[in-house]
Design goal:
This protein is of the alpha/beta class and 166 residues long. The chain has one domain: Vaccinia Virus protein VP39 (Rossmann fold, 3-Layer(aba) Sandwich). Helix content is 33%, strand content 20%. A seven-stranded mixed sheet has the order 3-2-1-4-5-7-6, with helices on both faces. Helix 4 (110-123) links the parallel strand 4 (98-103) and strand 5 (128-136). The protein binds S-adenosylmethionine.
Length: 166
């Protein structure tokens, strides 16, 4: 049995997302460029991003739109389907320009999570701007990226932060 209950794992993940997003919003404030959300889910983190990043282009990916109706992205920026299939066709539009990517595509099961960690680690680096930040619910193997400490309010090991060096 895992050390933490599902309630704790969910609660700590949401707590870490909120703390990391707050930190990331100020880090990218002076940096123009698009933002990515891998894993729309119910739209909670997307809704938080769009409210705190007015005017910023945010591209959102998921298999289907299962978001609360008041958290639906603009359909022109919502890319539905398997990320392994949709992202490569999209990537050239933002290559080297993304200032913040939130990858929230983990599962409680380790097998699919490992596959998605490999997917995110393969697809995200070519689109990141110098200084661009990747936030992830999964530990990613990102050669050439710095691993950053989590900000205050996020418990160690509950989220992961990386930056492409300038
Ligand atoms: C934990 S939820 C995201 C939660 C969301 N960020 C929120 O705040 O409500 C993970 C989402 O990732 C999507 N997902 C996972 N793997 C995917 C893949 N390979 N391709 C497309 N979508 C994927 C799932 O469909 C699910 O909606």
């Amino acid at each position: 049995m895992p050390e933490r209950s599902r309630l704790e794992r969910t609660f700590f993940r949401l707590e870490a997302q909120h703390a990391c997003l707050t930190w990331a919003f100020s880090e990218i404030a002076a940096r123009p460029g698009p933002v990515l959300e891998l894993g729309l889910g119910h739209g909670r983190t997307f809704d938080h991003m769009r409210r705190n990043l007015p005017g910023r282009e945010i591209w959102v990916f998921d298999r289907a739109n299962d978001a609360y109706e008041d958290c639906w992205p603009d359909p022109d920026h919502l890319i539905l389907g398997e990320i392994a299939e949709t992202f490569p066709a999209f990537a050239s539009r933002v290559a080297g320009k993304v200032v913040l990517a939130n990858s929230d595509i983990g599962y409680f099961a380790s097998g699919p999570s490992r596959q998605n960690a490999q997917l995110a680690a393969r697809l995200l680096p070519p689109v990141m701007a110098p200084g661009g930040i990747i936030m992830s619910d999964l530990d990613l193997d990102l050669p050439g990226f710095e691993t950053l400490p989590l900000p205050a309010g996020a418990r160690p090991g509950t989220y992961y932060l990386y930056r492409r060096p300038l």
